[in-house]
Amino acid sequence: MNGRSALSPGDAVGGALREIAAGAVAQAQAILNDPGRDPTAKVHDIRRALKRWRALLRMMAPHLGEAGQALRFQARDLARSLTVARDAQSAIDALNDATEASAELPIALPARSCVTIQKRLDALRVENERNIWTDEIQKNLSDYLTAAGWQVSQWDLEALTFSDLADMLTATYRRARRSMPRRWGEAEGEDLHDLRRRVVEHRYQMELIEPVWPRFARIWVDEAQRLRTRLGKYQDLEMLTAKAAMHQPLAHWRSKLTPVIAHRQTEHLQAARRLATRLFAEPPKGFRRRLEALWDAQADD
């Protein structure tokens, strides 16, 4: 991430958060303006940068008012406009993941089918990028980021304390914890998608305090990223399933894809359950007390 990305012990919290927000906007603008990235990489990187930015806006919502909410909604809509351009690539990633995991099993896809499906998805990816990654969407993104950068420069956050930040981090932690399925084996795709969104927010927000909690925070962020990855791969397999539905591009291979997808989704779900149970084991009040104690300990050094 370009520019500042985290608080340091003893920082004025409000000023640091404003600098971090400005850096997040600048990073997204740099990706957009980078002539060396091909469309596939640019769409992926822009969507990831917008997720980081939206996680910051979501966390700071109580202190940004309606203008901050509007910024977040606009970023969400721009990210959604890029989703179709990413769908085929997600299906390709899912195909590679599922076929590799089942290569030694009786349900394995024939090599010839894998090659044909890959070609079909590659063609779809190119078509989607051509239709979605237009001059208009790039201009909309650039205009939004320019406006967002100006708004960040006007934020009045000087009164914010670490106690306020701890409240915001704990609110996200609580939302993620509550999003965990009660019965993982019966979880619907939409439920897992919602959990993943909360985990993405939590993962990016915890990076803000990594210097305050250096060793353990890195482990925490890594665990959150592993959970995000498992849930993301599950979601990619949902996309591959949709591409194999009736009248869809991969409908011809539906009977062969279904058992391969189901096998891999079960593995991802089991791993996600273990990771989430461990990551969100602590009650929110205990999580908040830990944050405050660590900040106070750093301040006393």
Number of helices: 11
* Rg from alpha-carbon coordinates: 21 Å
From the spread of the alpha carbons, the general shape counts as globular
Q: How much is the average pLDDT? A: 92
Distance between the termini: 28 Å
Q: How many β strands by DSSP? A: 0
Biggest sheet details = none
Helix content: over 70%
Class computed from helices, strands and strand pairing: mainly alpha
Q: Write the element-wise H/E pattern from the N-terminal end onward.
A: HHHHHHHHHHH
Strand content: under 5%
Stretches with pLDDT under 50, minimum 5 residues: none
Task: Write up this protein.
The structure is a single chain. The chain is mainly α and 301 residues long. Helix content is 77%, strand content 0%. It is built from eleven helices and no strands. Helix 9 (214-243) runs antiparallel to helix 10 (254-279).
Summarize the structure.
The chain has helices spanning 13-33, 39-59, 61-81, 83-101, 111-132, 135-154, 162-179, 189-206, 214-243, 254-279, 284-300.
